[in-house]
Amino acid sequence: MQLSQKQRQLEISKLLQQEGFATIDYLVAELQVTPQTIRRDLAVMAEAQLIERHHGGASHRSSVTNTHYQARKILNQQEKEAIADTVAGLIPDDASLFINIGTTTETIARKLLDHRGLRVVTNNLHVASIMSAKEDFQVMIAPGQIRYNDGGVVGDATRDYIEKFRMDFGIIGISGIHADGTLLDYDDREVSVARSIIQHSEHVILAADHSKFGRSAMVQLGNLGQADYFVTDQRPSDKICKLLKQNKVALHIPHSS
């Protein structure tokens, strides 16, 4: 029996809640409709802010839980690569840096492997694994509770360890950016650590692709104005640009003129 548009969109919503992220091909196979039908449904649902559209698929929209880690690893990967190239260009050899949790920061870690003599403190097991491949890097992992889903290390012990250091750079990823510049994330334990990274870094680099603009998450981390550099793949809104200018935050957009 063929589903109505409303029934089909309810099924899409259920699938996205179960999977976190689903490709158009997956939805086509599950619902037995054409790709064009799925694209129209996703467009309507995204317009109503029920889901988040991505190249080739969509993800569940929630202010309480983040998209599944495996899905985030492949979302907007081309944009993350461009952002990571730009961030790596801001980091000199023989620098000290914090790197926090996130798939964007993991992409940045890979781009930094061409550097020399970096000293890194991280609460991201994946970042530690990537960067420890370099013999001339010194990589330190903060202690704490390991999140099973993404290799993030969080908790009071993590924050206390971060506060022992004063680093040249703090590289921060974020889950959402409100229209007023508020930085948002899902886990208050992760936010507590990120705040300490910001406080104990000479220069803060915030790295986030365009999908983070307007994305909801329930924990406030801080504000864009606290960064020294903001690296993203698309020009932000006029309101955000004004905020960056007022706070002397350098905006970097890869491949922009």
Keywords:
single chain; about 260 residues; alpha/beta; Arc Repressor Mutant, subunit A; Rossmann fold; 10 helices; about 25% strand; globular
Please tell me about this protein's structure.
The structure is a single chain. This protein is α/β, with parallel strands linked by helices and 257 residues long. It folds into two domains: 5-61, Orthogonal Bundle (Arc Repressor Mutant, subunit A), CATH 1.10.10; 76-252, Rossmann fold. The protein contains ten helices and 15 strands. It has helices at 5-19, 24-31, 35-47, 69-74, 77-90, 103-111, 125-131, 156-162, 188-199, 238-246, and strands at 21-23, 51-54, 57-60, 96-99, 119-122, 138-141, 145-146, 153-154, 167-173, 176-177, 182-185, 201-207, 219-223, 229-231, 250-252. Helix 5 packs across helix 6, helix 6 packs parallel to helix 7 (125-131) and helix 8 runs parallel beside helix 9. The longest helix is centred in the first third of the chain and has 15 residues, at 5-19. The termini are far apart.
What would you say about this model in short?
With about 260 residues, the protein is an alpha/beta fold. The protein contains 10 helices and 15 strands.
Structural class: alpha/beta
Q: How many strands in all?
A: 15
**Cα shape:** globular
User: Major β-sheet, in short?
Assistant: 7 strands, parallel
Distinct helical segment count: 10
What integer value in Å does the Rg equal?
19 Å
- Top CATH class of the largest domain: Alpha Beta
Strand order of the largest sheet: 6-5-4-9-12-14-15
In whole angstroms, how far apart are the ends?
52 Å
Overall tally of domains: 2
Mean pLDDT: 89
Share of β-strand residues: 15-25%
Order of helices and strands: HEHHEEHHEHEHEEEHEEEHEEEHE
**In CATH terms, what is the architecture of the largest domain?**
3-Layer(aba) Sandwich
